[in-house]
Design a protein that fits this description.
The protein is α+β, with helices and mostly antiparallel strands. It has one helix and five strands.
């Protein structure tokens, strides 16, 4: 499977976003696609999706829990 799908809607996936996502649509959505995980922007359901392995997603989640990406959530 390729790492980028140009139109995420072609995956036929059931997308899920975080419960804490705001009503403004600024969130990412995840979907199981076979043995991979697809990620897309909720405001662009027909836009591109990135495809990751389960271990890649697990590494990201571990880093997020550890605060490794906190600097990206601060306003400039």
């Amino acid at each position: 499977m390729q790492h980028i799908v140009e139109d995420a809607s072609t995956l036929g996936a059931q997308w899920q976003k975080a419960r804490k996502s705001g009503a403004n649509g600024d969130c990412v959505e995840f979907a199981q696609v076979g043995d991979r995980v697809a990620v897309r922007h909720s405001k662009a359901p027909t836009g591109p999706a990135l495809i990751f392995t389960a271990s890649e997603i697990a590494a990201w989640v571990d880093g997020a829990r550890a605060g490794e990406f906190d600097s990206y959530t601060r306003e400039a």
